[in-house]
Amino acid sequence: MRHKIPGARIIITGASSGIGRQLALQLANLGAKLVINARRTELLNELANEIREKNDKKGVPTFLEIVPGDITLPETRQAIIDRVLGAYGGLDILINNAGGAATGLFEGNSPERLKKVLDLNLVSLVEMTRLALPLLKREGQTQTSETAPMIVNLSSVVGLRGVTHYSEYCAAKFAVRGFSESLRTEIHRYGIDVLVVCPGSTDTEFFTRYLENTGEPKWPHHSRVSPEYVARKIIQAIRSGKHEIIPFFLGRVLNWLNKFCPRFLDWAMLWYT
Known about the structure:
Blueprint: E1 9-12, H1 18-29, E2 33-38, H2 41-58, E3 64-68, H3 74-88, E4 93-96, E5 102-103, H4 111-136, E6 150-154, H5 167-186, E7 193-197, E8 212-213, H6 227-240, E9 244-245, H7 249-260, H8 262-269
Parallel strand pairs: 1-2, 1-4, 2-3, 4-6, 5-8, 6-7, 7-9
Helix pairs in contact: 1-2, 1-6, 3-4, 4-5, 7-8
């Protein structure tokens, strides 16, 4: 199923930087009506000002709502839903982008660390989806839309293959894929699509703003893709109604090796433990 972007009512979580920020910029440029969320209010305001300035130069109206707050809190998630319903009368596309990793060997890590990683990457995504589902089913909407509904969940290449030093994060991102695949089947009857995005190494704050860092693997040098590129690929996948994308060449190689040479990857990971 294809999905129209102009006029689409879209929620983006984790929009203050990286992939989320680029999604907001590119979707706004295409005429989407946005509700953006992140913890850092100042960065959200800077993003909003940039979007408004660009639209003013083009002479087009800006449809943008800001909901600062921690996505792991129920009141923040409810505020996002209330805002999209109040501002636009409904919802067409939910993009669960917020996330972050903790790195280091599992041995010696605390249960609190696991909870923190799961709350941000999995629980908040699932509960945001739970709140959004009635709107995506067109229940309680006060305005109609020509855009077919969709949920976009950000997983990771390490949600395809577990890697050393990221055990909790891998577990969360594997769970995102499993949840998304199950949900896709359940809500197909409502005409709702589910897209899973599995980014690889992207040039964002991911590698400098860990939730916790007790040690990192010494990966061989490799180039990272830009968040602009990943956002562009996500939008293309939304438009074409794809179910899963890996917007990173080495990520696709990793996935291929894991399918056909899993023992080789097991052996390779020992070099970086």
